[in-house]
Amino acid sequence: MVGESGSGKSISALSVLRLLDERHVRYPTGEIHFQGEDMLKVSEKRLRQIRGRKISMIFQEPMTSLNPLHTVEKQIGETLALHKGLRNSAARKRCIELLELVGIRDPESRLSSYPHQLSGGQKQRVMIAMALANEPDLLIADEPTTALDVTVQKQVLELLRDLQAKLGMAILMITHDLTIVRRYADEVAVMEQGKLVSMQTPKPCLPIRSIRTHASCWMPSHPMRPWRSRAPPSPC
Ligand SMILES: Nc1ncnc2c1ncn2[C@@H]1O[C@H](COP(=O)(O)OP(=O)(O)O)[C@@H](O)[C@H]1O
Ligand SMILES: [Mg+2]
Questions:
Q1: 90 CA → ligand 2 middle, Å
Q2: Could you read off the pLDDT of 99-139 as tens digits, one per residue?
Q3: How many beta carbons lie within 10 A of that of residue 37, not counting itself?
Q4: Which ligand is nearest to the CA of 141?
């Protein structure tokens, strides 16, 4: 899902899990379907089962989601206890497996680390491990790499792609970076002013050209360089 800052990407993603405060939010029209259920109609009890178990979410800034006062083991362990009933040695074993899965080196020694003892990339990996703890069918990643430097960004994106194939889950990736779209997306949804304005399949070849019509509407006003001044995409 792409669109300029403020176009409603995060709001749409949060709506899928009904995480917005419903004292202030209304859904006057439309439906949100997930595995045959309309998320706007299911009960609060059912929503709690789906959140974290069938659909997980990772955010742009890991520090807003990681508790600075808890160790890595405690943060991942809470999710495992809540949804899987795992505790003590069984939870610890699963924590280590998850840290290995997301490519954290020497995972056993990392269990007792606090967030401030981890690099940006490691924190984002821990966030991904927490999101994967219950093997979700859908992972929503809201600009998961924007806060990371370019090299780590690539590693995390490659990790997500590998995990998607390995675990057979779907990923809704939210980004404003068209290079990421071109490299990773199977389908592209373009948001503008709170509305979904197009839905396209960019692959297999020269995908970016097809989304440029919409992209050119918003890229010039974006703080990044205007799309037209960039080098054209190389053929695939
Ligand atoms: N469908 C909508 N209806 C009403 N307001 C919206 C809608 N989508 C977005 N907004 C408003 O726009 C702001 C920015 O949306 P957000 O989803 O955070 O944008 P993005 O993630 O694309 O940067 C929100 O805080 C909200 O006030
Ligand atoms: Mg956002």
A1: 36
A2: 999 999 999 999 999 999 999 899 999 999 999 988 899 99
A3: 14
A4: 2
Show the ligand 1 pocket: residues with CB < 6 angstroms.
Answer: 3, 5-11, 194
Residue 203's pLDDT is 57
Residue 130 CA to ligand 1 centre (angstroms): 26
CA distance 130 to 110: 14
Q: How far apart are CA 117 and CA 181, in angstroms?
A: 32
Could you report the per-residue pLDDT of 199-223, keeping only the tens digit for each? 988 654 444 444 544 444 444 334 3
Q: How far apart are CA 137 and CA 151, in angstroms?
A: 28
State in Å, rounded, how far the first CA of the chain is from the last one: 22
The angle at the Cα of 139, spanning 76 to 203, to the nearest 5 degrees, equals 145
Confidence of residue 177 (pLDDT cuts 50, 70, 90): confident
Please tell me the distance from the alpha carbon of residue 173 to that of residue 57, in angstroms, as a whole number: 10
Residue 2: Cβ-neighbour burial (10 angstroms; 0-12, 13-18, 19+): buried
Phi and psi angles of residue 115, each rounded to the nearest 5 degrees, phi first: -50, -40
Predicted TM-score (pTM) of the model is 0.83
Assess contact for 156 and 126: CB atoms under 8 A: no
Q: Which ligand is nearest to the CA of 142?
A: 2
Question: Whose CA is closest to atom 13 on ligand 1?
Answer: 6
